[in-house]
Design brief:
By secondary structure, the chain is α+β, with helices and mostly antiparallel strands. It has nine helices and eight strands. Helix 5 crosses helix 6. The longest helix has 22 residues, at 172-193.
């Protein structure tokens, strides 16, 4: 139906559907692609990314969007690359299918000569408390939608409206404090990751739920937060990340996320392409 899709990945909106459907997805560093003409959700976190059949396709789209020459990444050797697997937060609540796929993928990376290390990264445990009032997304979305909500609240999807209206719980001091905390978070995590070429983790910890499983509002809210959890780490970190399929043919799709620090987009895409090539035989 389409060669590729564009999206504003604010907390995973390119990488999550890519992981759940067996496609590649990429979220660039937020400042990399101009956002003129993009309807904002959170100007601080919005990143113009892509969903496509392969990482090479994502890389070409990213280059065009960033105003660069559209070239696919050059082949990148996996041997000797240093991958860190965060041990805090991002491995919690995995279902059996995703846990199996992720373990197999990291084993294949090690067998290919990459150095895969566990990284405690306790800083990630700060994120739930930092975002308890809806985070930057709720505050900035509410600022944009406030007048529309006042005039046309019934026209909003109730589940969407509820998330936007959470921004009303924050005042100016809450927002400023969160921005300061984010800067501190980025500095602390960057220091922890300095010796690694990329962080790797499951893109999302569960395979796609059924529609019936999401009919209840509370069940939907739990599933939504769980799906957003890992991708949103990269947005808060102001980094870049690609989701690569890591499931076997015939199994429910799952994604492995290759994440880099802000500004390392080209290198992160090249590493993700190498990971994709390694894992491609799983899908026949």
């Amino acid at each position: 139906m389409a060669a590729a899709g564009l999206g504003t990945d604010t907390g995973g909106s390119c990488r999550i559907p890519a992981a759940l459907t067996g496609l590649a997805g990429f979220k660039p560093t937020a400042r990399r692609v101009p956002r003129a003409g993009v309807l904002p959700l959170s100007p601080t976190l919005d990143s113009v990314g892509s969903i496509a059949p392969t990482i090479s396709c994502c890389a070409v789209i990213d280059a065009i969007a960033a105003g660069e020459r559209p070239l696919a990444p050059q082949p990148f050797p996996l041997a000797g690359l240093r991958f860190a697997v965060p041990q805090s937060l991002v491995l919690e609540d995995m279902d059996a299918s995703v846990a199996r796929d992720f373990a197999r993928a990291t084993g294949m990376l090690s067998a290919a000569g990459a150095r895969v290390s566990d990284l405690p990264l306790p800083e990630l445990l700060d994120l739930p408390a930092l975002n308890a009032k809806g985070g930057l997304v709720a505050a900035e979305a509410f600022a944009w939608h406030r007048s529309l909500l006042a005039a046309r609240a019934p026209d909003y999807d109730p589940r969407v409206r509820m998330r936007i209206e959470k921004g009303a719980e924050q005042d100016a001091s809450d927002y400023i404090t969160l921005c300061i905390a984010r800067t501190d978070f980025i500095e602390r995590v960057t220091a922890q990751c300095a010796l690694f070429d990329a962080l790797i983790m499951p893109t999302v910890p569960h395979i796609a739920p059924t529609i019936a499983e999401l009919e209840d509002d509370d069940a939907y809210a739990r599933a939504n937060l769980l799906m957003l959890r890992n991708p949103a780490v990269v947005n808060f970190l102001d980094g870049c990340a690609a989701s690569v399929p890591c499931h076997r043919a015939g199994d429910a799709p799952a994604g492995l996320m290759v994440s880099g620090l802000g500004g390392t987009d080209s290198r992160t895409l090249a590493i993700a392409q190498a990971v994709e090539a390694l894992l491609a035989p799983l899908r026949g």
